[in-house]
Specification:
The chain is an alpha+beta fold and 436 residues long. The protein has 3 domains: 124 residues, no CATH class; 95 residues, Helix Hairpins, CATH 1.10.287; 146 residues, Histidine kinase-like ATPase, C-terminal domain (Heat Shock Protein 90, 2-Layer Sandwich), CATH 3.30.565.10. 54% of the residues lie in helices and 17% in strands. It has 10 helices and 10 strands. The strands form 3 sheets. Strands 5-7-8-10-9 form a 5-stranded mixed beta sheet, covered by helices on one side. The protein has a 3-stranded antiparallel beta sheet with strand order 1-3-2, with helices on one face. Strand 7 and strand 8 form a beta hairpin. The longest helix has 55 residues. The model has no long low-confidence stretch (mean pLDDT 78).
Length: 436
Amino acid sequence: MRKYIGKYILLLVIFLALGIAAFMFVTSSQNRTEGQRHTLMNRVAGDLSSKGLSDVDAELDALVSSNDWEAEYGRNNVPSDIRFIKAENVSGPYSNLLNGNFVWSLAEDGEIKGFLVFSFKDDHAVMTIVICEILIAACFIVSVLFFVYIDCKVIMPFNRLSDYPERIARNENADALPESKNRYFGRYIWGMNMLRDRLSGDTRKLRQLEKEQLTLVSTIAHGIKTPVANIKLYSEAIKSGLYREDGIPDAKDAEVAEKITKNADDITGLVKDLLDSASKGVVVFEPSVEAFYLTEIEDFIKREYDNRLSVLRIPYKIETKSRVMINSDKSGITRILTQLMENAIKYGDGRGITITVDKTEDGYIFSVRDTGSRIPDSEMPYVFNSFWRGSNAADVEGNGLGLYEASFIARKLGGDIEVRYLEETEETEFEVFLPL
């Protein structure tokens, strides 16, 4: 909500401007009305004074009947009643005559003879201003509520969903988006989940093909290595004169043997390049270093796994022992931890998962511990090999690339990853170290 505070300020400024404009408009109209009324009253008083004050009532009636003030001054500016009160009939201060009316004195030879009392229809200027301001305030409140609704129901949910396509594009593990009754995103969520399922299926098929390809290449390569090694042995024997009757090396034989050895070495190099090429395409990752706080890793894990682990009834806790800033690839670290969390969920016994984030003098440590199926000690050296799966994974779906990917990314970031079994807590711990 904080990033949208600007539009609320803008909305407040707009409505404040509207309120001020309404107030100024009504005030200006009132000033014009008062000016017209004073002009009319001054005219009436002047006309009566010029005709003498012997019979003011008769002159007043004649003046009112002979003039069309409404056309000239406007209906609201014409008094509804004009009375003349002689001075001797006024008791007390003449201000008592006001009572919401306009009083104009008439004098003759310097002596006040009486007062003209002008009565106008009720003045609604103040009420008009109040009504306008109330309407503007109501519109402002309605607008704020509308924007808050849009923020809560559209913008903020969409921001939470906005990184989902990117994660799918990066082949990161992404749970299906939870079904929502929100009418704005129901079809979007359904479509994204369908896309995720489709891409997950295609990825599994691709991984299987890659595994079969690597297996085939490895089989061929290892099949080539043995005869090539034998060829090199034969060439060395020829070079040494082993197959000559006199046992003395021959220069021409040695030259031919040297060429055979060189070709055998070339074949060995090609086999090595072939194996390296087949393995490199399995995981694609290029670091993009940026500065961020370690607490952002904690926020990521909570956002991704709170609901899921709650549904699975697997307790977990995060121990962020340091809240400093780190310069690394946040996406790479989250990919590593995602793989470790997925393994903890798949192979753990559900008793609990512990994630630790810390900083030491040498670097940063991220560890994931869980109880459950133990990896045999004899298999520990192979857990990070591509397409390798342990004996404890026979009944669990997977392709043997998760830990290989985690190890690959850790090395790309200049660090490493280790696995150990903690006898005292009966936990398997995967620990990632990234240097400063």
